[in-house]
Amino acid sequence: MSRRQPRAARPARAAGPFALHAPAGVSDAARRRCVRLAWALAALLAAALLAITFGPHRIGDYFTETDFYGQYAEGARLIQHGRLLPARYGVVGPGYEAALALAGLVVRDLFLAAQLLSIAATAVTLLLWFHLLERRADARLALWAALFLAFDATFFRYGYSATTDAPALALQTAALYALLARSSGRAALAAGLFAALAFLTRYNAAALLPAGIVAALAGGTPHPHRARAALLFAAGFLAPVAPWVLWSLAHGGSFASQLHHNIAYEVFARAKGIPWDDYQKNLQPQFHGLWDVIRRDPGAVAARMLHNVGDHLRQDAASLLGWPAALCALAGMVLGAADGTLRRLWPLGLAWALLFLALVPVFYSERYALALLPTYAALAGLAFASPRFALAAGRTRRVWLKGALALLPLGAMATASWRVQARAMDQLPVEALECAGTLRALKRPGDAVIARKPNLAFHAGVRAVPFPFTNGLPALADYARSSGARWLYFSWPEGETRPQYWFLLDTTAAVPGLAPRHVTAPHPAVLYEIGPGFGTVPAWMANDTLMALHTRRARLMVDGNDVQALHGLGLIEHVRGRLEPARDALERAAALAPGDVAVLLALGRVALEQDDAAGGEATFARASALAPANVEARAGRGWARLIAGRPEEAAALWRPVVSETRDAATLLRMAELFHALGDREAEAAARAALARPGARP
Fold it and tell me: Is residue 206, in this structure, part of any structural domain at all?
């Protein structure tokens, strides 16, 4: 049997000026350039994060960084003094607090130490992810992925935050790098150790254990002996975790976790619009473990989990990445599947899937999804690193035109990141930092401050006492005495979560036993010193009008665009006979809510009392246009015409609404006007309406 003769080679084509696809592979020179660029990118990223840390980020926010003030700083100090308490770690392990304690030995200010820890972790994540992709695919993809990672708003946001997020992500990335980019047994062992440390920092990193074992056994790692690599990885994971668990159980710890509250809140509170504070107050005591959550309503739990799968993917695209980058990631999936890159990266896809499923039971948060971001960045990078549709131009030195298109999504990401960071800086409680300076100067040994958030107490160096769920000054005073608090702090978190005490933000409302020591503006807050007499109810609180006045003033200090508060303040000032302040408040409310008929009617009444016929006419005309059947608007226009000296026009507006009018003063004036004009029938109708029991004085 004769062999087939090989086909004669075709003559090589001359290189054209344009090619749809670029050649695969990266030269050594190009790889070295990519490495240098990646390190330069990491340095620039770290420099930008340091600028924020030593610039505007002088205090942590009232959201994610509250955990630093309320938990991590205290835990780090305990560890520095040789005390590791297992009972503290129901939601996260001791990994972050241990790292913070070590950093705090070098940088005494724990808040600064936490930020520097996040900055270092962010730079490490970027570089490790670059080198992981460089080894699994090529340097071109690695550099594009690093760019998409660095430009992401959430990645940058938590790169300077005093939270567990950046350190946990760095440990997860280190675990994947050691397992998937290195081939020695020591690397597999180190990968397991890094995965364990990530788990002891954020419990959802437990997903790395099955992901690593499956990847090793299925040949997804460069280790030559699959079973040995899997065993070493598992051993590295158990090396710190098993002793920690055994030691914890022997020292009062338990397997109980508080993570079930995240699930309960997601299913039974957040899905119904119930805020976290209300959940803590009313629902949290009902759930002692995961089984309590499931048993409450298994169908609701299952339905919410299914809903979250799709919803989390949608929010990853919209919030974590932004749609421009998300579309790039989708394109990268298609191109990576076509050119074979995804086959080389499947272990990363497995890790992503397990980490994603670990987050499905809880409410969505961009910071939780941060663990998924490097994989998304790799997919987005694939869209531009793939040689498919590279649009390479030039005869001798090819230029990838497709790369220029990356300026669009990267530019959109940079713009979005700028907005996110500006918003984050604007929300920082700088007012608490101001009050902390005063408190630090006036404090005595053992002092404590009552506040909704512990940020103030940390920066002032006093003990934090939570703001209680009490109702009334006597109960709040009893709580202050029992907790040994000499200070009371009130700002917007206290007002929004304890609305019965809004008046404390308005220092014109004198409260016995509370002496204002520092008042801030434009971000309103008051630091009170608690003295004798606190708990006595002031006389003005018996007056509902004054109580409402101080409450609305306080709310408007926090949000000057609160239409409801402006409307209420206008009504109160009107009742008090203060027409100018009343009109000012109502005009602001009308400008903010031009379609609110009640606001327009109140504004029209004030204008009439000021004898402003033109202003009253215009305001009541707007109200009539919005609500043609509104009797008060029609009657108000009649009053305006009467004040303007046009009685016949007033009578014409009033005649159709005589029988529907309920205001006694208006009916009396109608009767007088109709009498003066000789309209006996309309006069009789007005006097009959005036005699009805329903007529208001």
Answer: yes
